[in-house]
Amino acid sequence: MAKVKSAFFCQNCGAQSPKWTGKCPSCGEWNTYVEEVIEKEHASSPSWNKASGPARASKPQAIDQVESVAMQRIKTADEELNRVLGGGIVPGSLVLIGGEPGIGKSTLLLQIALQLPNLKVLYVSGEESEQQIKMRAERIGIKNNNCFVLSEVGIANVFRQIEELEPQLLVIDSIQTLYSDKVESAAGSISQIRECTAELMKFAKETNTPVFLIGHINKEGAIAGPKVLEHMVDTVLQFEGDRHLVYRILRTTKNRFGAASELGIYEMQGEGLREVKNPSEILISQKDGDVSGVAIAATLEGNRPLLIEIQSLVSPATYGNPQRTSTGFDNKRLSMLLAVLEKRGGFRLGTQDVFLNVAGGLKLDDPAADLAICMAMISSLEEIPVSSKVCFAAEVGLGGEIRAVNRIDGRIMEAEKLGFEAIYVSKFAQRAIEGKKFKIAVRQFGRIHEVISDLFG
Ligand code: TYD
Ligand code: MG
């Protein structure tokens, strides 16, 4: 019998060491080393490389001489997914989708599989039985006899079935449940994840079949397993959103075949996920008349302009220490904006509780939301509503200056499309909008107190 070999792996970054160490020399985390058994000596089970003989030795070529192939992407029925993938599924690509439990990863991928009637799809689940998957498919309500399901955790058997079925798209739900006999440690351990991903990648590249992997995420929100998993795959998508809210966001965090900052929005309904084609409309609440404390920011998520409602409540603190609480926005940046308003605008906010909320459960990190946030707070403090026909797109500097933001023309166009009457931007954005004709009034300002006196008199 072959000798059992074991090694220690950092559960954070995947670094390997022959002995236990307290601090990982590679990523600096403490107490992350776990012993895992690796035994490659008597690898007996089949895997995807069994049939393919010795690899062809590749030779270097001049880059000019390399034949360029137009990449034929597979367009899915799901426009949001096509966008986050950079224009459709690339054949032979390995795509990882991460997200919290219950967010809808299995629903999303099953739905995509069912919406591709011209493609033979194999959906492998290590988490649910065929009956459970069937129940979900019935809920989604799309009929497709070209979609096959398999409840299996052994990768060797998965490959055996693949050879027989020859699917044109493979879905693995989830990579953490898959198990390869070549590695002795438990399913979900670093070495298992790494081995299974490597075999799936080999399969994807050699047969030009796209593979989707579902990955669990850990408490900190990173995809569980080593960072190497993210390095190995071509595309990493994050499926996020508050589980109690109906909206879900699919975000690209890495993409070898497209922009890495794209975004798709879905709504979770009783019959699966529905694409949200015009997200700005859902992010701005419908209401009769104007309310104080609300302002609309023209932000950019990836390449997509989004108008988002900012709500704030400013009221005198009753219990000693004033509170500053924000949902969907960085608390430190909020403190900075409050200090700017105090110092440059002359508002007494030090004695006030400040609550801030970004509509729709979104997380904002676009500095262009600064001006809308400031105006929402002042509107609440003064109890003067901001007209719901105006929006804002500018960063606020420490000196109270209104700074220009990127892609201002895209933001203005989106606001115009949605029927806004005016947008407040920086006067330093002049160059970007020169010579363009907009129906919407573009108001340009250089300092925050000028905006305040224009709005609140
Ligand atoms: P699921 O896809 O199982 O999440 P994950 O694979 O990320 O763990 O589904 C998550 C939730 O979605 C579950 O609580 C039930 C709900 N759901 C709907 O609201 N409508 C539907 O049509 C389906 C299939 C699920
Ligand atoms: Mg699932």
From TrEMBL:
Record motif RadA KNRFG motif, residues: 254-258
Domain called RecA family profile: residue spans: 70-217
Family annotation (Pfam families): AAA_25 (PF13481), ChlI (PF13541), Zn_ribbon_LapB (PF18073)
SUPFAM superfamilies: P-loop containing nucleoside triphosphate hydrolases, Ribosomal protein S5 domain 2-like
Residues reported to bind ATP: 99-106
Gene3D superfamilies membership: 3.30.230.10, P-loop containing nucleotide triphosphate hydrolases
Key words, A-Z: ATP-binding, DNA damage, DNA repair, DNA-binding, Hydrolase, Metal-binding, Nucleotide-binding, Stress response, Zinc, Zinc-finger
PROSITE patterns, per database record: RECA_2
Chain positions covered by the region annotation Lon-protease-like: 353-457
Function per UniProt: Plays a role in repairing double-strand DNA breaks, probably involving stabilizing or processing branched DNA or blocked replication forks. DNA-dependent ATPase involved in processing of recombination intermediates, plays a role in repairing DNA breaks. Stimulates the branch migration of RecA-mediated strand transfer reactions, allowing the 3' invading strand to extend heteroduplex DNA faster. Binds ssDNA in the presence of ADP but not other nucleotides, has ATPase activity that is stimulated by ssDNA and various branched DNA structures, but inhibited by SSB. Does not have RecA's homology-searching function.
Domain notes: The middle region has homology to RecA with ATPase motifs including the RadA KNRFG motif, while the C-terminus is homologous to Lon protease.
PANTHER family assigned: DNA REPAIR PROTEIN RADA, DNA REPAIR PROTEIN RADA-LIKE PROTEIN
Family recorded in the similarity comment: Belongs to the RecA family. RadA subfamily.
Name under which the protein is recorded: DNA repair protein RadA
Gene it is expressed from: radA
